Amino acid sequence: MTAYLDNAATTRLDPLAREAMEPAFREAFGNPSSLHAAGRAARKIVEDARERIASGLGADPREIVFTSCATEANNLAILGACEALRSRGDHVVTSAVEHPSVLETFARLERSGCRVTRVPVDGTGRVDSAAVAAAVTDRTILISIMTANNEVGTLQPVREIARAKGRAFFHTDAAQALGKIPLSTEGVDLLTFSAHKIHGPKGIGGLYVRRGTPLTPQLVGGGQEFERRAGTENVALIAGMGCAVDRAVRGLEANARRMEAHRERLRKGLSRLPDVSLHGHPTERLPSLLNVAFDGVDGEAVILALDVEGVWVSTGSACASLSLEPSPVLRAMGVPPDRIRGSLRLSVAADTAEEEIDLALERIPRVVERLRKISPVYRTP
């Protein structure tokens, strides 16, 4: 028996999503840009998936652009919008707790002469929408604030920010939020989503682009995706994502209740240990994610010990897992360095079993207690 509690990094592939992909490997193997029957069959799969995703987001199908992943979608949204809007201004606004694919893209823009305002967050990881509005000037062309944080689960006030954006365009990275909380594109010009966070295949993501939003393609050399992203569409992965998005949106309410119940069992069970702290907003948070710190232990040591025990968790963003630097999200929240070192991210999914939670609640305390006994810094209360 194992417990997979790293669903914020990726989820198990839904068998129905796998089944939806099969025709693209067999009869609909053509290039979707080709005019013959094999190409038309592939194109139908792509457009059917586009319609399912657009319906789930409350969008028009022509507002959906397929990318290779959420990272590419974030790059396209930020670089593409800023390049298209550069004649209107040179200032952008983001937060201090964005995904690395957003933070590093803004750092790249900054090196090229763009002015970047990084709005701070409070101790729960939440930005103040008034602070975002106050940062906007007549030279601001883009605001990018994530919908839900990938390390602590805190939800951002996206609707309030959208209402206060002024003449700037607004992008939100919703990769962690889709399928877990209700989403709206009201006031949002660009929205990033991903398949493998909601039981779809890896290697496929997308960007909602509100009609009329200026966007310069970052991949050129073809007219695919309404001339916003060149390259032959990955028909099979798009089909899998269409199925995954449809199922995630339709089952959102029941799935969210199930995930929240799992999360609360973990929170209550682990809170019984001494010297434990929780990170993130107490109420404005994803139903699926828990960030918890154990004083006196190193998070990576806990992960390795739990791996042997068959419990799989993480310390934070999988996209930054090879970095030895402390979590920039927790640092921005003002969490002390020693507590950052002892932090774990536990994330559940709709298909997480009760037995997995049972196993985690049995083995995590055992591992933490064992490591505390040999810790040179922990003192038993």
The oligomeric status of these chains comes to single chain
CATH superfamily of the largest domain: Type I PLP-dependent aspartate aminotransferase-like (Major domain)
Fold-level CATH name of the largest domain = Aspartate Aminotransferase, domain 2
Return residue spans where pLDDT drops below 50 for at least 5 consecutive residues.
Answer: none
- Taken from the alpha-carbon principal axes, the silhouette is globular
Provide a descriptive summary of the structure in words:
This protein has 381 residues and is of the alpha/beta class. It has 2 domains: 3-10 and 252-373, Aspartate Aminotransferase, domain 1 (Alpha-Beta Complex), CATH 3.90.1150; 15-250, Type I PLP-dependent aspartate aminotransferase-like (Major domain) (Aspartate Aminotransferase, domain 2), CATH 3.40.640.10. It has helices at 15-25, 37-57, 70-85, 100-111, 129-135, 158-163, 224-227, 235-250, 252-271, 299-309, 328-332, 337-341, 354-373; strands at 3-4, 64-67, 91-95, 115-119, 140-144, 169-173, 190-194, 205-209, 276-279, 289-294, 311-312, 343-347. Strands 2-8-7-6-5-3-4 form a 7-stranded mixed beta sheet, with helices on both faces. The protein has a 3-stranded antiparallel beta sheet with strand order 9-10-12. Strands 1-11 form a two-stranded parallel sheet. Helix 6 links the parallel strand 5 (140-144) and strand 6. Helix 2 (37-57) packs parallel to helix 8 and helix 9 (252-271) packs parallel to helix 13 (354-373). It is globular and about 70 Å long. It starts with a strand and ends in an 8-residue tail after the last helix. The mean pLDDT is 95.
